[in-house]
From TrEMBL:
Record flagged with keyword Oxidoreductase: yes
Assigned keywords, A-Z: FAD, Flavoprotein, Membrane, Monooxygenase, Oxidoreductase, Transmembrane, Transmembrane helix
One matching Pfam family: FMO-like
Cofactor(s) needed by this chain: FAD
GO molecular function: flavin adenine dinucleotide binding; N,N-dimethylaniline monooxygenase activity; NADP binding
Protein name from the UniProt record: FAD/NAD(P)-binding domain-containing protein
Regions that span the bilayer: 233-253
Length: 475
């Protein structure tokens, strides 16, 4: 059986980042990145729908060690994939990646102080590893969130979920209905209307859509390395302060956003009906509208927006409960993802299955009573990469600590102070979060069991704060 020091599962942004950290800070460790798909990129390789792009600023979505080369605020999916490919190639990380290696299960042996991983490749195989790092993201790649839409199975046209966009889909001169109002729908809508005969966005309730620009003026006056550093620091702090402002002064932010939205809407679209959310900003994710493309598309004669509850779908139309109906040749169900942690890897400790459900999280990185396992997790209100990199830094610090003291395993043990209550994994009220709530782990109330929700402070704590509290070590 092959033996590793570290098995990284997943070659998306998180997996690439931890691979770089391992090569630079712990080069003596033997590790491999096991990727079930046949290419790197994770989410950015999976999603190929028209208009796919980041919904976080690219200076923080990108790596600290590989600056973003383009002068953009938000980036397209192709640009991000090109960026990741370049980062892997430039740092020779591809030599550590094994494609087509799906990890089915991982069992921890207390006697051996190691994990045994069951791998599906051309033939089944086993790998032994002292540590496993789950860089598998937070949603199911194979099954999106299922919505109960009566009669959808009777529709005679094509039903497409953006997660599985067909490369050969021809929507030219077709009537397209986009169901949903999240980031995917907001980026799809303006892209489709250029070729489609009609595009209608159907939303159950309004969301906040904030226009932003890909400004380029600063590039003319400042050196690129300096500008990249400043941008990254600025957006880490700015986005956090904006979230705090939304939390403590929701009416102020809501009024500002509504005023801007009213200014951008065409006169035939009613603001109160279609763009007045029932919730406060950042109770659900805010959607960014690149260069105002979404609002501009609403001015086109072949676009429309409908707000309400779908009653049923027939062979060629969608009927709303208010009696309105929308003709459609193609229905796109941009209704959300199915949250899932761990990438369907079945974890067990000495043969006993490990459930993620209601298990406490240590330092945003490990699970209570699960030895030598870390999982990469990001932010809801800032770039995912920032949280994943904090975990990577904690891991490298912990490894050096254990090596100096001859320790082979580390397992989090829940403290009585932290166990006095629980806090939700994500503080969002989005449908996909609520649907998965009872299957997710939780945070505690004190110490290393509290959630990481302040990126500037978390950055400092990951690098110079406590990283051994509430851990039991064994030689």
């Amino acid at each position: 059986m092959e033996t590793l020091d570290v098995a990284v599962i997943g070659a998306g942004i998180s997996g690439i980042n931890i691979a770089y950290r391992l090569t630079k800070e712990l080069p003596h460790l033997k590790f491999q990145v096991l990727e079930a798909r046949n290419s790197i990129g994770g989410t950015w390789d999976l999603y190929r729908y028209p208009g796919v792009r980041s919904d976080s600023d690219i200076s923080t979505l990108g790596f600290e060690w590989h600056p973003w080369p383009f002068d953009r605020f938000l980036a397209t999916g192709d640009e991000i994939l090109e960026y990741l490919t370049t980062a892997v190639s430039k740092n020779r990380l591809d030599r550590y990646i094994r494609f087509g290696h799906r990890v089915l299960s991982a069992d921890w042996s207390t006697a051996d102080q190691s994990w045994t991983l069951s791998i599906a490749h051309h033939t089944p195989s086993l790998i032994s590893s002292r540590w496993i790092i789950l860089s598998t993201g937070y949603f199911d790649y194979e099954t999106p969130l299922q919505q109960d839409i009566p009669g959808l199975d009777t529709f005679k046209g094509k039903v497409i979920h953006p997660q599985f966009w067909p490369r050969d889909l021809d929507y030219a001169k077709k009537k397209v209905a986009v169901i949903g109002s999240g980031a995917t729908a907001v980026s799809l809508f303006p892209t489709l209307h250029d070729r489609a005969a009609q595009v209608t966005m159907i939303q159950r309730s309004p969301t906040y859509v904030v226009p932003c620009t890909n400004a380029t003026w600063a590039q003319k006056y400042f050196p690129k390395p300096f500008l990249n550093m400043c941008r990254r620091a600025f957006y880490i702090v700015f986005l956090y302060l904006f979230v705090v402002l939304c939390e403590y002064f929701p009416n102020l932010v809501r009024n500002l956003l509504r005023r801007e939205t009213s200014r951008l809407l065409p006169t035939h679209i009613d603001f109160e009906t279609h763009f007045k959310p029932r919730y406060n900003p950042w109770e659900q994710r805010i959607c960014f509208d690149l260069d105002g493309a979404f609002y501009k598309s609403l001015h086109a004669s072949n676009t429309n927006i409908v707000t309400g509850v779908i009653e049923s779908v027939s062979d060629n139309k969608i009927r709303m409960k208010d009696g309105n109906s929308i003709a459609a040749d193609i229905i796109i169900t941009a209704t959300g993802i199915r949250m899932q942690l761990g990438g369907k890897v079945k974890l067990s400790v000495s043969g006993k299955p490990v459930s993620w459900r209601n298990r406490y999280i240590w330092n945003g990185a490990m699970l209570d009573s699960v030895p030598n396992m870390m999982f990469m997790f990001g932010y809801t209100n800032n770039a995912w990469t920032l949280g994943a990199d904090n975990t990577a830094v904690i891991f490298t610090r912990l490894q050096r600590y254990m090596e100096k003291r001859g320790k082979k395993s580390a397992v989090p043990r829940l403290s009585p102070q932290a166990a006095t209550g629980t806090q939700r994994l994500w503080q969002l009220s989005a449908t996909y979060v609520l649907a998965a709530e009872d299957q997710l782990p939780v945070y505690g109330m004190a110490g290393n069991w509290k959630p990481r929700r302040c990126p500037p402070v978390d950055y400092i704590c990951a690098r110079w704060g406590d990283y051994t509290g509430d851990l039991d070590f064994s030689a």
